[in-house]
Amino acid sequence: MQDSPFVAPSCRLTRTHVSRADSEQRRTSQNKRQDLICHIQQGVAGIILDYTTPFCADIMNAPKEPKVKPPAIHAYDGTSDPDVHLLAYRHHMYVQGTTDATWCKYFPSTLKGVASKWLEKLPAGTINTYAELEILFSARFMAYKEEKKTSMHLGRIQQGKDESLRSYVRRFNLESGQIPYLPDGVAFDNFFRGLKKGSFKFDLVKKSVRTMADALDEAESFIHATEICSVPKESKGMETTDHPQRKDKSDKKTSRPNGT
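Predicted structure:
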């Protein structure tokens, strides 16, 4: 049977049409790929905006800064003081010299568990600055904040009757170090009142010590001198048995028959 003379041209037209369609599709794919590469190279996070994010478009579209190191701090899980975590994050980011947008973008990487889910569920575009992020974060987990120490806490510190000066100084410094903006005069007054009566307290009055720095210097000198001058119990026991031969000689002298 002879083939129709019109079949071959029809096939050629079909193949030509398909070839043009494939070429157009490849060109479109290449253009999309090139656009994506441009976004990545420029650090534009526009593609991320297709997903829900609590950060505004200005933050997400800000150019990516080079050489920014991820925060090497413990991840916050929502069960401890949020201000402590914020402080650790600030200390890391301060040395980076980064923009406000970078501070926002890197913060989620320091969260886990409940804290991470909380940030993820915030309404889209809620956060416009890092300051706003800190306020929201601190308020959300405020129930876990540690009690802020004040100078009133220092008034409760008293040196025990049998407590050493070294132990008292250590306890006092530990508490006073947790009180922000503590005036030196307030610190000294509480330190002095907490001291038990004794030679060290007398020395502070005699030398007219009025600053915390001078009081600590005096305490260090007093502790050092006390430790050097103190006699171990073993040494005291040895003193009673020292020179037994002398005692024997004295006994012999008293037992002479001629009375001399």
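Summary: Residues 57-144 form one domain.
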